[in-house]
Amino acid sequence: MLASILASGLAVGAIYALIGITYNTMFATSRVMSFTAGQLGMLGGVLGSLFTLKLGLPWPVALLLVLAGCGVIGVITEIVAVRPVLKSLDQHLYVLTTLAAALLIQQFTAIQWGTEPQPFPRLLGLGSGIWDEKYWLPVVVCAATIVGLEYLYRRTLVGRAFVAIAEDNFAARALGLPERDLRMASYALAGAIGGLAGFAGGQLLLAFFANGPLLNFYGFIPVALGGLGNNRGAVIGGIALGLFQQAANFLVGGIFSSVAVFTLFIIVLLAAPQGLFGSTASRRV
Amino acid sequence: MNITRRNIALGGAGAVAAATGLARPALAQNEAIRIGWLAAMTGPSSAPAIGFNRGVVFAAEAINAEGGVRGRRIEIVTRDTQGDPTKAVNATQEMISQARVHAIWGPTNSGESLAVTAIMARAGMPNIHPCVVDSLIDVRRYPNAFRMAPSNTQWDDAVRGYCLDRVNARKVAVIGDTTGYGVAATNASAQGFQRAGAEVVYKANIDATQPDMTPDMLRARNAGAQAIVVWSVSTGMIARMLNTRASMGWDVPFVGHPSLSSGEVGTLIERPANWEKVYAVGYRSCSRDASDALPPRTTELLGRLRGKVDLRDTLLWWVANGIDAVDLVAKAVEATGSSDKAAIIRHWNTLTKYPGYFGEYTFSATEHNGYPTEDVVMSAANSARDGAFALAPGY
């Protein structure tokens, strides 16, 4: 039982963490919580299945196309749902616009792809039982994504520009950084990460249009637990959520596991409203 | 006499009334028999309606090709409800007040039917449908509504009977999804097993999007389940459970909802062998026996359908039920010589073992569940061919 909890808990936790990172990546350059994050994860699975099983492409090619496709969806989200409301962030209009965009993506997928879950192929054909690739692949991909992002943010000029925009938007613009282009690039990057989450977790979640809302909810929890904008917090929060959810599935089962997850979530937020790894923001008065 | 606007208006109204009254007999003799068809042709759950529709269109064309009913053509008034109860309500009201249909077939899913049944009852509209929710049939509240398919209770009886009498499972696990239907069906099924003296060793409602079914399957095995009874329309959840059963090396039989035999399940299982020992609710009229033969009347139907209706991507019972629906309205008009709503309802109330293709329907003034319980059987879930299934072992 413990092995099963660990295998599936780590796998779904890694997927939730990647969706949490998608939220954070979009938030960093725009200060907007875009609720299209879960839909990008859903699209990763659906497009992956489309390219591999329906069109017969090799999975590496399919993966590249998924990353590109989801990146484009990310950019479109920025143009359509985020940019028009940036000037009135305090009114939180982005909640409506990004939710509307998410709904559009989901309905379009339901119409074009169908409302029944469809298979996602085995990619590497490695492992069986609790060592099946469907369990460890999301974990490996999550780890690789974290390493890649750390490298991007710490070692590259573009990454440092992202960080600068995230730290102080006005100062970065005063220094001549192309804020709009960087924001679009960060949305493309977020789209690719979301798509990667869905592709890596496709064997577990299947290619199913209804995965979007599920990932939206469970991907948001690591962000709230780990602290907004904190990728490491999102990873720890995501893994903890996955393990707790699977343990609750084993111990209390069925619908009560969801109750247990959200009860813990509320308790944590009551104890630490800024998240477990977030810092209290200071504001000049 | 003064010519006033009031006199002109009254005179005009009288003239229109007289003209309408005089024209009515001639109009009724040639007027098409309009059958409203509330079909979820697009959107989620559209597969059944597409199958039903093939039967409906086939039956209407066949009757019209033979000259109609007493010289009156059948006209199908189809409205796509997209599976949405709100759209079903709007379509029903339009059919009653504008299209002025003589009877309505459908909706074909319970959610929509729950929304429109009372509206049809208020209008006294003859309504036949194949929806399973028990409360949809109530002769006191809905004297106009007739069910020409099994109720949920009949499904439940068939599943329980198969588990207890043919699988000889005295300890069962009952598992459903977390939808309203899943919870209600799971509770009803568990209570039925307990009343029958069986032991429900595990009962659960699982979120259909839960990626790993190992926890519930392990608990069911540890509890000593000898059969897993499934009440869910979620093919993803069903396939995950079957894959988990295989990975556990457990050969417990699955018995339950017709979705167990859905073609979608076949695409989602990891190996074809994972679909063995899975038995779904089916119907004797659309099941092949041990010699691979369908009942004679169904064979005759297949002969009529050959080359005209594609059965490869649908279920035979959907098509047969659609044909029966149109035929039931046509026969009522033929027998009574009238398309009057009350006359159609009165006629249906007298039917005993009416020989449809899907089954022999029996209705009375006090019983509008018309499908015979003994014709609800279990099918081998992985045996679909041209829309029909093989009978499960033991029949």
From TrEMBL, chain A:
Signal sequence extent: none
InterPro entries, sorted: ABC_transp_permease, BCAA_transport_permease
Bilayer-crossing regions: 6-25, 32-53, 59-81, 93-115, 135-153, 187-211, 217-243, 250-272
Keywords recorded for this protein, A-Z: Amino-acid transport, Cell membrane, Membrane, Transmembrane, Transmembrane helix, Transport
Family affiliation: Belongs to the binding-protein-dependent transport system permease family. LivHM subfamily.
Protein name: Branched-chain amino acid ABC transporter permease
Membrane topology (UniProt): Multi-pass membrane protein
PANTHER family: ABC TRANSPORTER PERMEASE PROTEIN, BRANCHED-CHAIN AMINO ACID TRANSPORT SYSTEM PERMEASE PROTEIN LIVH
Pfam families, per database record: BPD_transp_2
Location in or out of the cell: Cell membrane
UniProtKB/TrEMBL annotation, chain B:
Claim: Transport is one of the keywords in the record: yes
Superkingdom, natural source: Bacteria
InterPro entries reported in the protein's UniProt record: BCAA_transport, Leu-bd, Peripla_BP_I
Occurrences of domain Leucine-binding protein (ranges): 33-369
Keyword Cytoplasm among UniProt keywords: no
Alphabetized UniProt keyword annotations: Amino-acid transport, Signal, Transport
Entry similarity comment: Belongs to the leucine-binding protein family.
Protein name per the record: ABC transporter substrate-binding protein
Organism of derivation: Roseococcus pinisoli
Classification lineage: Bacteria, Pseudomonadati, Pseudomonadota, Alphaproteobacteria, Acetobacterales
